[in-house]
């Protein structure tokens, strides 16, 4: 899941309702979505008079919260004794350097070398945020309940998905939701989805063959996301979206939504700083106002609500009692006698949205980076193709986990391009953070543990962790799949994540629930594509990683795209 999904920022472009007219079979959604331009617009005094009492109240609440937070942060806070980068401004702190730089990591990786694995950075309006990439500290935070999703994140998740999302639930409620969902995401369950993944990979091959763009430079990122979403939507909803057959994919709709809501720019950063101080009751009121950018969000909610509830109705009308689908699994957990341990029917779309969005963004972006590196490394590409074709021609069921080159390559992709480079958390209690190696304070003292106060903002700096030379070697900033084929894999013995020392899917009680589904989907798509096609980078390649909630490929002109030259493989 994303690190941030901030307050809506108005941007020109398509709306979800414009895209949805062709996205679904006409008999699936009976009521076509009305373009918002033609919809009846409600009248709100606040919309036309920004200095009305509502906005004055909002300003007072935010100012009071900022002052209180600033006062608490100055009281005996050990974090302030640590060395960290100077902030270019009080208003934006280090946030534009951290999240808004042209190439993600150009500042962060330098700070890692200069200040170590634990250091403070300045957020907007004087906030202090603690960057943590120390492995012992990360292990503690991921396996304990001392931290929770930060307030900005929680409100953003509520805005995107709803109020019962797995991503922001804690404690007993989180355990109940995982208990309900875990069987559907188990290894045996995911293996039954393999035919759907292979069908999607074959449709992608046919789509590219029909385009006739061989030998030309093509942006393949949209179709990679569409193929990924076709798999996710069909496995979750048992309903093919047919995005690769010319119909608008939910992935396209979600990309429009993310473009409207992402906040790495100036306004977005400020709104992220302000959101934590808006009370829930006021936040709900604001979401009902005609704020630019919210129209897309409301369309998305309406469509996913209709998709989910009509699927449930169709199953009931057909007399189906099976809980084989994700939606069916959730519906079977609707225990009226014990509602606190089950899932209310009205909240089922919340969980569907959560999985659709998280699965598409992370899987689609990881696929994009995989194809970029395949195009960049022609010799390795040839070896990978040889392995994939040998597996296809063996006549046996392919066990993708036993393809050594493919898996070494994908582990390196997950290390080098973690979909979630920063995970935003907040301390929910006072605790002492253990460190794997000493940290030098401003006074020159060496400390091996750090007292953390309740309310401290924390970044799990996952991208920095994956570039630590002490774990990954002196060439940690190089992309080298062979490191995973050595006698002792990197980070062996750390016991951090699901694949060696990788934290691309997090770990502990907050580990990505769908990591098996994501990994198998990526394995199938990459091996299918590299067996059929050859990839090369254009001469004017300018792709770089950029922070847009996840780590996405962008070209030199700032456009989210992955231009590569595609041809038929020999």
TrEMBL record:
Cellular location(s): Membrane
Residues annotated as signal peptide: none
Biological pathway: Secondary metabolite biosynthesis; terpenoid biosynthesis
Domain of life assignment: Eukaryota
Major subcellular site: membrane
Residues that span the membrane, as ranges: 51-71
InterPro entries in the record: Cyt_P450 (IPR001128), Cyt_P450_E_grp-I (IPR002401), Cyt_P450_sf (IPR036396), Cytochrome_P450_monoxygenase (IPR050121)
PANTHER family linked to this entry: CYTOCHROME P450, CYTOCHROME P450 12A4, MITOCHONDRIAL-RELATED
Family per record: Belongs to the cytochrome P450 family.
The protein's name: Cytochrome P450
């Amino acid at each position: 899941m994303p690190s941030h999904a901030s307050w809506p920022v108005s941007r020109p472009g398509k709306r979800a309702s414009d895209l949805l007219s062709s996205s679904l079979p006409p008999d699936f959604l009976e009521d076509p979505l009305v373009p918002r331009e033609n919809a009846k617009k409600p009248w709100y005094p606040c919309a036309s008079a920004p200095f009305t009492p509502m906005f004055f109240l909002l300003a007072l609440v935010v100012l009071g919260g900022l002052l209180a937070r600033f006062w608490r942060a100055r009281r005996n806070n050990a974090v302030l004794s640590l060395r960290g980068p100077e902030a270019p401004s009080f208003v934006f702190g280090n946030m534009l350097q951290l999240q808004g730089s042209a190439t993600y990591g150009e500042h962060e990786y330098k700070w890692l070398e200069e200040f170590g694995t634990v250091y403070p950075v300045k957020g907007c309006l004087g906030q202090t945020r603690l960057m943590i990439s120390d492995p012992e500290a990360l292990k503690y935070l991921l396996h304990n309940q001392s931290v929770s999703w930060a307030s900005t994140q929680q409100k953003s998740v509520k805005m995107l998905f709803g109020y019962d999302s797995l991503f922001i639930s804690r404690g007993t409620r989180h355990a109940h939701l995982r208990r309900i969902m875990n069987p559907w995401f188990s290894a045996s369950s995911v293996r039954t989805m393999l035919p759907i993944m292979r069908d999607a990979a074959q449709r992608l091959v046919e789509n590219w063959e029909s385009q006739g763009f061989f030998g030309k430079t093509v942006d393949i990122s949209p179709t990679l996301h569409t193929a990924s979403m076709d798999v996710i939507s069909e496995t979750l909803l048992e309903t093919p979206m047919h995005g690769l057959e010319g119909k608008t994919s939910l992935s396209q709709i979600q990309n429009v939504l993310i473009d409207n809501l992402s906040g790495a720019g100036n306004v977005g950063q400020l709104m992220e700083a302000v959101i934590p101080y808006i009370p829930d009751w006021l936040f709900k009121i604001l979401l009902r106002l005609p704020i630019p950018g919210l129209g897309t969000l409301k369309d998305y909610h309406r469509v996913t609500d209709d998709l989910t509830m009509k699927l449930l109705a169709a199953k009931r009308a057909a007399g189906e009692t099976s809980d084989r689908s994700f939606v069916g699994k959730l519906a079977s957990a609707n225990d009226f006698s014990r509602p606190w341990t089950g899932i209310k029917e009205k909240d089922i779309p919340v969980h569907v949205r959560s999985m659709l969005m998280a699965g598409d963004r992370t899987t689609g972006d990881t696929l994009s980076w995989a194809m970029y590196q395949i195009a960049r490394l022609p010799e390795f590409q040839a070896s990978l193709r040889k392995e994939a074709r040998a597996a296809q021609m063996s006549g046996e069921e392919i066990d993708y986990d036993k393809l050594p080159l493919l898996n070494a390559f994908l582990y390196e992709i997950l290390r080098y391009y973690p979909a979630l480079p920063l995970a935003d958390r907040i301390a929910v209690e006072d605790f002492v953070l253990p460190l794997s190696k000493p940290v030098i304070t401003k006074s020159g003292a060496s400390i091996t543990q750090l007292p953390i106060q309740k309310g401290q903002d924390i970044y799990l700096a996952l991208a920095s962790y994956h570039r630590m030379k002490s774990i990954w070697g002196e060439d940690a900033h190089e992309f080298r799949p062979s490191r995973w084929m050595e006698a002792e894999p990197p980070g062996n013995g750390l016991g951090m994540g699901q694949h060696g020392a990788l934290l691309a899917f997090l770990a502990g009680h907050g580990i990505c629930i769908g990591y098996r589904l994501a990994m198998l989907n990526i394995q199938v798509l990459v091996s299918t594509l590299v067996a059929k096609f050859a990839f090369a980078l254009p001469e004017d390649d300018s792709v770089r990683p950029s922070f847009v909630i996840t780590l996405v490929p962008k070209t030199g002109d700032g456009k989210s795209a992955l231009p590569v030259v595609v041809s038929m493989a020999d």
